[in-house]
Amino acid sequence: MIKCIIIDDNEIALMATKQCATKVDSLNIVNTFNDSIQALSFIASNPVDLIFLDIEMPELNGMEFIRALQQPRPHIILTTSHTEFALEAFQENVLDYLVKPIELPRFIIAVNKAKIMLEKHRIDHVDNDTLFIKKGNLIVRINKLDVLWIEGLGDYVTINTEKEKFIVHSTMHAIEQKFNSKEFMRVHRSFIIRIDKINNIEDNCISYFDKFIPIGKTYKESVYKRLNML
Question: Would you say the pTM of this structure is higher than 0.85?
Answer without folding.
Answer: no
